[in-house]
Design brief:
Layout (H helix, E strand, L loop, with lengths): L1 E5 L6 H12 L2 E3 L2 E3 L13 E3 L2 H9 L3 E7 L2 E6 H10 L1 E5 L2 H10 L3 E7 L3 H11 L4 H14 L8 E4 L3 H16 L6 H17 L1
Parallel strand pairs: 1-7, 1-8, 2-7, 3-4, 8-9
Antiparallel strand pairs: 3-6, 5-6
Helix pairs in contact: 1-7
This protein binds adenosine-5'-diphosphate (ADP) and guanosine-5'-monophosphate.
Length: about 200
């Protein structure tokens, strides 16, 4: 099943996702396509597929995105093939913005929606500054956008407040474990159990 993780830039989504993947091992990360420039520490194909605007537009025309949006002035999208392949193998984590989360919800695909919040606005600014990835304009845009994004939290199934990293990572893992216990999440296994019951009935 899909786990959609959203929240303002700098709240700690990537950090939490990396922590959960390290600890759980059996979840995969959905690598998005983007037209923004690669950061020095990023790897093409691991953090994002970095593509030109023309390549991105072609993918939109061909209907290859499960969702896409313009975020902080750049294009970002989740390709269907990326999610379909990884979803077939197990659980998949998507780090996407609230516009994308709405599109995944509208698609009707089984998913858990998780909103990550910083403990306070000033801490978001501190974290974005500490990360040293944004120039002045991008930093201001991300902080301005955050004021709009934060209000979307009631649309999500779960909210994780990322104050202490260990606590937040434990909460995110708990959400994954709890979601796996939904009746719809282990359909095949449950159907097998039900079949075993009808055989039992037949014997008596
Ligand atoms: P996002 O993916 O949401 O944009 P990042 O994961 O890149 O955010 O985190 C932004 C910065 O905040 C990074 O420098 C990261 O190390 C730091 N950070 C993340 N979580 C915490 C936390 N709980 N406490 C302090 N710093 C954090
Ligand atoms: P960043 O540039 O910091 O990596 O990401 C900026 C924002 O884009 C974050 O809110 C992140 O969740 C969002 N984002 C990353 N990939 C996608 C995607 O495929 N689709 C959408 N809608 N948003 C994305």
């Amino acid at each position: 099943m899909l786990f959609v993780v959203s929240g303002p830039s700098g709240c700690g989504k990537s950090t939490l996702i990396a922590r959960v993947m390290r600890d759980l091992g059996d979840v995969r990360f959905s690598v998005s396509h983007t037209t923004r420039r690669k950061r020095a520490i990023e790897v093409d194909g691991r953090d994002y597929y970095f593509v030109s605007k023309n390549e991105f537009d072609a993918m939109i025309q061909e209907g290859r995105f499960l969702e896409w949006a313009i975020v902080h002035g750049r294009h970002y999208g989740t390709s269907r093939v990326e999610v379909d392949e990884k979803d077939a193998a197990g659980d998949v984590l998507l780090d996407i913005d609230v516009q994308g989360a709405r599109q995944v919800r509208a698609s009707g695909r089984p998913a858990s929606f998780i909103f990550i919040m910083p403990p306070v606005f000033e801490e978001l600014r501190r974290r974005l500054l500490k990360r040293r990835t944004e120039d002045r304009a991008s930093l201001s845009k991300r902080l301005a956008d955050a004021r709009g994004e934060i209000g979307a939290y009631p649309e999500f199934d779960f909210v994780v407040i990322n104050e202490d990293l260990e606590t937040a990572a434990a909460e995110l893992k708990s959400v994954i474990f709890a979601s796996r216990c939904r009746p719809g999440s282990s359909k095949e296994r449950i159907e097998g159990i039900l079949r075993s019951f009808s055989r039992e009935r037949g014997r008596r």
